[in-house]
Specification:
Elements lengths: L6 H21 L8 H9 L3 H6 L9
Length: 62
């Protein structure tokens, strides 16, 4: 599992994931659970969708 999510992409994913989770808690519905997807991919630095289409936002070849 090679990292394919760069630093800026990670920060955006983490912020968006937390915002969606926060909205879900505020709205008291389960849709906030969708925020776990960008949050986890941001924390791991790997996105399965990027792997399928060959996208890398990292600078090097790790």
């Amino acid at each position: 599992m090679n990292k394919n999510v760069g630093t800026v992409d990670k920060v955006i994913r983490i912020v968006v994931g937390l915002a969606i989770i926060g909205w879900g808690v505020y709205a008291q519905n389960w849709w906030g659970a969708i925020g776990a997807i960008p949050l986890v991919t941001g924390l791991l630095g790997w996105c399965p969708a990027y792997s399928l289409v060959g996208i890398r936002t990292t600078g090097g070849s790790s």
